[in-house]
Predict the structure.
Amino acid sequence: MSTLAAYVDGVGFLGPGVGDWPAAAGILTGAASWESGPTVLPLPQCLPSTERRRTGPLVRLTLAVGLEATTRAGADPATLPAIFTSSGGDGENCHEICQALAAPGRQLSPTRFHNSVHNAAAGYWGIATGATPASNALCAHDGSFGAGLLEALCELAVERARVLLIAYDASYPEPLHSVRPIPGSLGVALVLAPERTAQSVAKLEAAGTDAPADHMADAALEALRVSIPAARSLPLLAQLAQRTSGRVVIDYLDGVRLAVQVNPCH
Amino acid sequence: MTPLALTSFTATSAIGRGLDATYASLRALRSALAPCAFETVDLGTCIGEVAGVDAVALPPGLEEFECRNNRLAWLGLTQDDFAAAVEACAARHGRARIGVFLGTSTSGILETELAYRRRDPASGALPAGFRYRGAHNTFSLAAFVQRALRLSGPAVVISSACSSSAKAFASAQRAIEAGVMDAAVVGGVDSLCLTTLYGFHSLQLVSARPCRPFDASRDGISIGEAAAFALLERRPASLEGDAVLLVGAGESSDAYHMSAPPPDGRGARAAMLRALAAADLVSEDIEYINFHGTGTPSNDEAEGRAVASVLGSEVPGSSTKGATGHTLGAAGALEAVICALALRYGLMPGGVNTTEVDRALPVSYLRENCRRPLSAVMSNSFGFGGSNCSLIFARADRSR
């Protein structure tokens, strides 16, 4: 695989007990300790009230991290192509549909149905921000973050324009939780640029590798990394937070992972 | 963009297994839509069901992927010597240099729907043996196809509702152009399930009759299922004249509504304009358009306006969903293969079921087959969430 390069212009983060990217960076550098807690999801003020009522937690999660990253990057979200990637999308909605279909009468709510598409978060992102460039909606099970990063880097290499990557996952309720035990919600967003800008914080150079993925040194953070697919981004985020040069390997598929050289811009 | 060759392609849908059967149905203007007798579904609707899917055996060792969607995928992969073409490609480039980029909207969700009927009465647990990763998860399709074809490059599922498998062509094209891989198995597989049958019904978007795209009295979709694949590679030094190239892809977002397009079709228009720009073609170069043409009043109206504003009202077009049904996440790939057949044989397929074309729609809708040498054609795919993708295919011997 050829080497693909990008500059990180903005990061957004929301996870269990972690409210934004500075809070995450503090934990990832060891300056603060992590205590897991609920993922606090802000109400999306940018959606019209009719749409806001229909949105589930995942739409709030993706809007929050996407807007944090674009704000930090000084980018107008309406102008950015966006790549959404998630292992399971909206598990609560999926459960409700399966439950309704197993019940007599099979009464399905139309809103539940149109929210069941894997690109629901991408659709609401467009409605909320007015973004009309291409958006994508990807899935690669536990490797969904790696798949999204690869797609973002390919778009960047070909189109030579900034892109927004949003990786996100949430819990399923029972009985699906028992067969796919994702413990909480986590979202991460990166604004990636083809050339260095005034907002660039680091340069990434990524290539394929069959080396094993990096683990987190902290046991609790390692448990988070392996339990929420979007948290497979943590080794990369930790390297960004440390503002030092280093090489990390992040998960994608068995035998195809991404080795990312990170060099800070300051 | 750099054109890529479709060095092999195949399609399996209700109108036939493989290219010969598909082409024969198109030539005969045959619709495969029939009253729904799928599973226990009690809706008054017509569907495009592929016969014999549940009798398909997955390759040994891949039992973890058992579900209707992967059975349909395997049925599709075993047509037209497609797997042999992938083997030859692997010999040229290496297994790690071939990606798997596939679209699906519902993957193996049918397994979960059925499992929810058999939950433990006391604990509510799903039945023993339920396989989340192999059947339910959206990625199951690409994981299965990658394993079945013994490939080891990048793999991903694009799941953007009814534009999924058209967008798979666009994503794979970028990854090849970026040097990540040399070739890709692209395509889409979607199979019948209760979520989509009852879901589209709840939105009142399903016709009680076989769907009639662009008809004055059209009243909704008919759901179908399909598996369609293409092997995308950089253009070889020598290529048969009738070989088919992907020459343009354009994507856009409506930013408008989750389940309805803006009435002026501006998102569709943007996708078509981007595809033309990527192909370095002008609207006059497009000789046939395979419409998304779902058969709902608002979808066809928005698309008709968008197409007229980009290509004018004279370019012949049709929707093949009257024959196959709307195969959702597989529609983009299925209709890409139909476009490839159109280019190979010089056949513009007539849109079946439609009896009286809506005169309010400013397009030249074909109700009968039309034979004419074709060199460049367009296929539209649009999905929920306002996700749009247009693809342009051309013959290798096309001269500008």
